[in-house]
Design goal:
Layout: H1 19-27, H2 37-50, E1 54-60, E2 64-71, E3 82-84, H3 90-95, E4 101-103, E5 125-132, E6 138-146, H4 154-182, H5 188-197, E7 210-216, E8 231-239, E9 242-250, H6 255-272, H7 278-291, E10 298-308, E11 311-319, E12 324-327, E13 333-336, E14 354-358, E15 363-367, H8 391-399, H9 406-420, E16 429-435
Antiparallel strand pairs: 1-2, 1-6, 2-3, 4-5, 5-6, 7-16, 8-9, 9-10, 10-11, 11-14, 12-13, 12-15, 15-16
Length: 440
């Protein structure tokens, strides 16, 4: 193996001993700590989805690999939940600077066949993705081990990448909140950074579609407390020609809302490749929230779709969420979706898939209730108070964007909301638009 930063005298990657990386590992405050439910749940999810027998969340310092979570391994004490770094595959991830490391047959792969742990740890196949600090330092790995050789499927690897991102996000969130508590002050800028960390920074391109999204946090006049909202959205490839888009709104704000937001988004991503029905997928999310005793309920909308020669064919399901809006190429706007039960409260929910098609020039808009329940700034005199910006006003604003692409449409709706109440946002507002371009 050749490593970016070279090797130490013992032949292991020199990056293991990088002082900046070691400082980042120490700053997680996870070394030599007991297992925690947040990490155990993600590791258990990896075992269930991939079918591997073992899953690990590890932190790697200069000398050892510490297992914050080790599902499928009988290791009760802190001393048992670690091994010397030269006996761990995790050093490959550190040496490779954050690239994933995947082995289908550890006993024959030239990179690992002489590794001292292949036989003692019964490593048939190994797949791991890095845990990264905000600065890009490799903190450790999220990995799965199968006793027998196997070929990891693209779905397996995408799941592991998603769950590794979730673990990294959990670590970042804890560190940021701990820093805020230690300083005895709350930072609105920090809250916005954390919120953006729960949203995809750039929408994944969908061939044949024009897409755009925005997130506007609620206004916080005169407040010093950090308020992390619960609105989120995501757009991602599921399998084959299919894609998924999800939007949700967790009840309330703060740390608990952020935790539910993260869990919901990554649960949907992890299950979407195996579940074609939006209603079944959201029912699965409801079950996951109940089993993990999520402290907040959530409304959500999910659509599974594929591009076609004529545009887009898909299905959408509402779980206590406002209906989707469709703007046709001729400017007409209509609601789409059957009202369903919100998630995280009842064992049995009523959810319905509704089919739809989009042609050239048609646009699908997902939004949270900040866009259809926008209220005036508190304390505004009655004579200057504008009515609530409701569903009718939102539909009219969308109709007024007739002919505009997704990015301009989202921008114009945001401007209409801001103009209605002089820039005051009574609630967090997320918008996600999917448009079929018009043909030349």
């Amino acid at each position: 193996m050749r490593y970016e930063a070279g090797t130490r005298p013992d032949g292991l990657p020199a990056a293991l001993s990088d002082p900046a990386r070691l400082d980042a590992v120490t700053a997680t405050a996870l070394l030599d700590t007991e297992p925690e439910e947040a990490f155990e749940n993600l590791a258990t999810l990896a075992v269930r989805i991939t079918g591997a027998g073992r899953a690990f969340v590890t932190l790697v310092d200069a000398d050892r690999s510490f297992w914050k979570s080790c599902v499928g391994v009988d290791a009760g004490t802190v001393a048992e939940r670690q091994n010397p770094v030269h006996e761990s595959f995790c050093y490959f991830l550190v040496g490779l600077g954050g690239e994933p490391f995947v082995v289908n047959d550890a006993a024959t792969d030239p990179r690992t066949r002489d590794h001292p742990s292949v036989a003692p740890m019964r490593i048939g196949a190994w797949a791991g993705y890095p845990l990264l600090s905000p600065e890009g330092h490799v903190l450790g790995s999220f990995c799965v081990i199968d006793d027998e050789p196997r070929v990891w499927s693209p779905g397996d690897l995408e799941t592991l990448a998603t769950l590794a991102h979730s673990v990294s996000a959990e670590i970042h969130l804890r560190q940021s909140l701990a820093a805020a508590r230690d300083a005895h002050r709350a930072s609105t800028a920090l809250a916005r950074t954390l919120q953006q960390g729960l949203l995809p920074p750039v929408l994944r391109p969908v061939p044949g579609l024009d897409t755009a999204a925005s997130y506007l946090p609620a206004s916080v006049d005169g407040q010093s407390d950090v308020e992390i909202g619960g609105d989120f959205y995501d757009l991602f490839h599921t399998r084959g020609p299919y894609y998924g888009a999800v939007m949700g709104d967790v009840c309330g704000k703060g740390v608990e809302a952020a935790q539910v937001t993260s869990m919901a988004r990554y649960t949907v991503r992890a299950d979407a490749a195996d579940i074609a029905s939006p209603a079944v997928l959201l029912d699965r999310l409801n079950t996951a929230m109940l089993s993990q005793r999520a402290p907040r309920f959530i409304t959500a909308v999910y659509t599974a779709f594929r591009t076609t020669p004529g545009g887009v064919a898909g299905r959408v399901c509402l779980a206590g969420h406002p209906p989707v809006l469709v703007r046709r190429a001729d400017g007409r706007v209509r609601q789409l979706g059957t009202p369903g039960t919100l998630l995280g409260v009842l064992d049995t929910v009523s959810l319905t898939d509704v089919r739809y098609r989009l042609g050239p020039g048609d646009l699908l808009l997902l939004y949270t209730d900040g866009a259809c329940e926008a209220r005036p700034r508190p304390g505004t005199p009655a004579g200057r108070r504008q009515p609530v910006f409701g569903e009718r006003e939102l539909a009219e604003a969308l109709a007024a964007t007739h002919g505009m692409d997704a990015a301009v449409t989202v921008k114009e709706i945001g401007a209409a909301l801001a103009a209605r109440h002089d820039g005051w946002a009574s609630d967090d507002t997320a918008l996600l638009a999917l448009r079929v371009p018009t043909r030349p």
